[in-house]
Amino acid sequence: MTTEKKSTTTKKSQAAKTKETAPKSTPAKTAMVTVNVEETTLANRTPDVIATEIRDIDQKARQHAIRSAIEIGEKLIEAKALVKHGDWANWLKENVNYSQSTANNFMRVATEYKELNSQALANLSYSQAVALLSVKAEEREAFVEENNAAEMSARELQAAIKEKQELESLLQQERERIKAEQMALEEERQQRADLQRDYEYETELRKKFQDDLIKAQEAAAKAPAQGTAESKAKAVDLRKAEKALSESQQRIAALEADMKAKEEELNAKVEAAVKEREKEMAEQARKREEEAAQQVAELQEQLRKNNNTAAIKVKLHFDALVGDFKELIGAVALLENEEQKKAISERLAALCDDMKAKL
Fold this sequence. Notes:
Blueprint: H1 2-21, H2 27-43, H3 47-82, H4 88-95, H5 100-112, H6 119-122, H7 126-131, H8 137-147, H9 154-222, H10 229-333, H11 338-358
Helix pairs in contact: 3-5, 9-10
């Protein structure tokens, strides 16, 4: 029995020694490792990373919004086909609380954006998609990509669309003006060609009349004495030839006058068109200058407001800094440990030097 007790005591003693010599766990170090991992993770959370995540979420939200709008529009189209004629407005109000204009927008979005094969269109918000309905379907995707429409506010997008439509209107007016001028010019050319043809015909006719006159004169000279039938006939032919030649010369003179008048009229029209175009271009330039001046004024006003805001922020921070600094100096003065007071004073002096260097 005594031997068993000793053996048991010896084992307990050895176990105790083993426990004492075993390496102890270091919870503080483990905690430190955990903190370091967290700090490393937080260090990777830069503003750029967060901005990328926000854009990704925003893009997904936009895609979900426009696809939901398309689905709503499709169901509205289906419902409208089933609702009794004349009851559509009441049905909308009682069942989905939509106005007819809202329902029409949803249905148009469903029709116009049914195939979202373009990433540029898929990134649009519902309001942007509605605004872009005024852009031709075949031009919509290119317009969105060229203007980065998905990043525009509703006001900016509407302004860009309005500018596009105004430019298209001006371009159409210019095309119509050029077409009208070309038609008028072609008509003038045709009239001049007709006059030229008539002039050439009359010139040939005058030559013939001149030849006939010469022949008539020669025949009259060779004719028997006056009073005979042959001499009378030759005299009649001579007078006819002279009259025809005179009339031909008059017509040629009239044609020449008409051709000159047409040329002067055409030159006057061209000159007037050039002056009118110059006037239009000057007016457009003036409007662009006014718009540019207005934009500059708006930017200057915005800058002034921003500067005022910045000045207010600076004043608030400065006042807070001065107050905190005074309290800090007072707290340092209350320190009893001279070494601690000296160390803090040196750190404050270094901080002040650093602040001064950055100003």
